[in-house]
């Protein structure tokens, strides 16, 4: 979204109010562009996505990723853009099965409430260097904490959490490959 004639004071106020996952503000001479988050948030989100996708690739799981696609449900008056989202073994029809939310600053809206309206089966929340995994309970239309993923069984969330915050992403991916027992290939640097 592009806003015109925004004063510096208004920009600072909006920056404070909108500081959360999924929001990036760019201000240039009275013009405000609203986009998305901090470098740490983006690094962690991207690293987690790459690690999860590598896990699925090595384990030969058909994982379909849809990034931060906007999902809406007018009847329930809900809408959200997850940091990452996935389906296992099928392409997107309505809503994802797995949603990843990276929390760098505390959000103002309970996204579990939003995802429950969509019937998302699992929500993975990465906050303070650790994961909380929530499974959807269709009987109560709420989420319950669980110890791991029912959709990506065997995914070591503690290992992914340790690797996700690293800035040496290629090495972190190699370490996950090694932990999974995947055959490694020589470096392409010399090519």
Description:
The chain has 191 residues and is of the alpha+beta class. 30% of the residues lie in helices and 26% in strands. It contains 5 helices and 11 strands. It has helices at residues 8-17, 39-58, 111-118, 157-164, 169-180, and strands at 2-3, 25-28, 31-34, 63-65, 71-73, 78-80, 84-88, 98-103, 122-127, 130-137, 142-146. The strands form 3 sheets. A 6-stranded mixed sheet has the order 4-7-8-9-10-11.
CATH topology of the largest domain: the name is tt1808, chain A
Number of DSSP E strands: 11
Beta fraction: 25-35%
Number of helices: 5
Second rung of CATH, namely the architecture of the largest domain: Alpha-Beta Complex
End-to-end gap: 43 Å
The ordered string of helix (H) and strand (E) elements is EHEEHEEEEEHEEEHH
As a percent range, the share of helical residues equals 25-40%
The stretches of 5 or more residues where confidence is low (pLDDT under 50) are: none
Tell the overall outline. Answer: globular
Report the mean per-residue pLDDT as an integer.
Answer: 83
Query: What's the alpha carbon Rg, rounded to whole Å?
Result: 18 Å
Tell me the domain tally. Answer: 2
Class based on secondary structure composition and strand pairing? alpha+beta
CATH superfamily of the largest domain: tt1808, chain A
Biggest beta sheet summary: 6 strands, mixed
Physical arrangement of strands within the biggest beta sheet? 4-7-8-9-10-11
CATH classification class of the largest domain = Alpha Beta
Features:
191 residues, alpha+beta, tt1808, chain A, 2 domains, three-stranded antiparallel sheet, 5 helices, 11 strands, 26% strand
């Amino acid at each position: 979204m592009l806003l015109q004639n925004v004063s510096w004071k208004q920009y600072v106020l909006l920056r404070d109010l909108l500081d959360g996952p999924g929001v990036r503000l760019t201000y240039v001479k009275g013009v405000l562009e609203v986009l998305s988050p901090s470098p740490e948030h983006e690094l962690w989100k991207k690293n987690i996505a790459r690690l999860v996708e590598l896990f699925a690739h090595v384990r030969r799981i058909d994982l379909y990723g849809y990034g931060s696609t906007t999902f809406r449900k007018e009847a329930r008056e809900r809408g959200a853009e997850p940091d990452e989202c996935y389906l296992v073994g099928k392409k997107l029809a309505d809503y994802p099965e797995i949603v990843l939310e990276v929390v760098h600053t505390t959000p103002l809206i309970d996204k579990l409430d939003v995802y429950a309206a969509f019937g998302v089966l699992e929500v993975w929340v990465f906050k303070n260097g650790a994961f909380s995994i929530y499974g959807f309970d269709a009987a109560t239309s709420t989420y319950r904490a669980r110890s791991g993923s029912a959709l990506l069984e065997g995914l070591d969330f503690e290992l992914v959490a340790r690797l996700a915050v690293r800035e040496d992403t290629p090495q972190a991916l190699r370490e996950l490959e090694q932990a999974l027992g995947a055959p490694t290939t020589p470096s392409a640097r010399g090519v």
